[in-house]
Amino acid sequence: MKFIVKPVLAAIAVAAAGSAFAQEAVVKIGHVAPTSGGIAHLGKDNEYGARMAIDELNAKGVVIGGKKVKLELLAEDDGADPKQGTAAAQKLVDSKVAGVVGHLNSGTSIPASKIYSDAGIPQISPSATNPTFTRQGFKTTFRVVADDVHLGGTLGRYAVKNLKGKTVAVIDDRTAYGQGVAEEFIKGATAAGAKVAGREATNDKATDFTAILTNIKSKKPDVIFFGGMDAVAGPMIRQMKQLGIKAKFMGGDGICTGELPKLSGGAMADEQVVCAEAGGVEGEAKKGMDVFRTAFKAKFNTDVQIYAPYVYDATNVLVAAMVKAGSAEPAKYLPVLAKTTGYKGVTGTITFDEKGDIKNGALTLYTYKGGNREQIAVVR
Questions:
Q1: Coil, strand, or helix at residue 152?
Q2: Residue 113 to residue 82: CA distance in whole angstroms
Q3: CA-CA-CA-CA torsion for 270, 271, 272, 278, nearest 10 degrees?
Q4: Are 209 and 176 in contact (CB under 8 A)?
Q5: What is the mean pLDDT of residues 326-330?
Q6: pTM greater than 0.90 (yes/no)
Q7: Quick one: DSSP state of residue 131?
Q8: b/e for 104-120, b at 16 or more Cβ within 10 A?
Q9: Which residues sit opposite 277 in a β-bridge?
Q10: 209-229 pLDDT, tens digit each
């Protein structure tokens, strides 16, 4: 018998150790953004925001339902492509994630939202601004930024009242985001008294805009608005300069990045570009954002592009709802998430309305001087 005792005791010890490790359950959180392709720099920016939140939460220690948990980030690349986006969404559902932060683009967020809804998994987008995203009747869909109705309309009014634009030309990249924000810009500009002198379309991978811009030049618009992303806007601005077009250039959050001057090849004139970010903080709250940006730079050795702070807040809001509900099971914490009220994040106060939209969402208007982005104003 003495030869059996040691193996038995060893087995018991291993089982006990396994039980101890099992006390720290793993909670998987998904993140999706384009980390390949023309706007990979924006996708990585978003992913870094999620990683920063997860790392900080794990370092502090997260307790859900009386048990310590380890948060694990499952990051997927959707290439800003709707088909790839739905495939990424299904992969996360199959991996049994507790929640998802993403996607970056409206064009991927909208089709993916049905997959998450069917699976009952909460999804918070930090940057999808097309109104349709939260107007499909899904109970699982949320966002922490203002939508295109607010963003595009505000830019349209600004073009007329502040930039004195009497005629505007509009170009979009045929994506859900680009078309959506362009349409809202037109509504805002025409309501304020502007005339639309031209309406053109390109695509989100185009690099040559000579024909479009030559046509627009003949109509002599005061303002050119582009609905799309910075990877396309940069070359477009460069070609505007080559053609001698001196119109103001406007766009939504998709172009409002630190990379835009570089992508334009230095062709931007000071204050030529005006854009808006769907979010913003001011006053005392700005200090928190400044602290975040400094910590982000120290951790990843790169500056915030645009939406990393919103991803950071979305991740924290998701986990806060799990902690408050005492469960990481989507069905149990979803009702708590939907009632999020007054959450103090680095991007401001987050309260969701009945559609899952952020209440009283802010916009920050920017221009560029000397190749640097400068804040004009925060509007609500």
A1: helix
A2: 11
A3: 130
A4: no
A5: 98
A6: no
A7: G
A8: bbbbbbbbbbebbbebe
A9: 364
A10: 999 999 999 999 999 999 999
3-state helix, strand, coil in the chain (%, to 5): 45, 20, 35
Which tokens in the block code for residue 124?
């918070």
Which pair of structure tokens corresponds to residue 273? 């570009």
Q: What does the CA dihedral 294, 296, 299, 302 come to, rounded to 10 degrees?
A: -90
Alpha-carbon dihedral angle through residues 56, 141, 45, 254, given to the nearest 10 degrees: -150
Taking the C-alpha atoms of residue 308 and residue 52, their distance in angstroms, rounded to an integer, is: 9
Task: Grade residue 360 by pLDDT with cuts at 50, 70 and 90.
Answer: confident
Domains of the chain in sequence order: 19-145+284-359 (3.40.50.2300), 149-277 (3.40.50.2300)
Integer angstrom CA distances of residue 244 from 40, 195, 218, 325: 30, 22, 11, 59
Give pLDDT, residue 23. Answer: 58
Residue 158 CA to residue 164 CA, distance in Å, equals 8
The number of CA neighbours under 13 Å toward the Cβ of 128 is 34
Q: What is the pLDDT of residue 70?
A: 98
| Nearest Cα to Cα of residue 144 among 281, 248, 335, 272 | 281
Q: What is the maximal distance between C-alpha atoms in the chain?
A: 98
Outline where DSSP puts E strands in 175-227: 195-201, 223-227
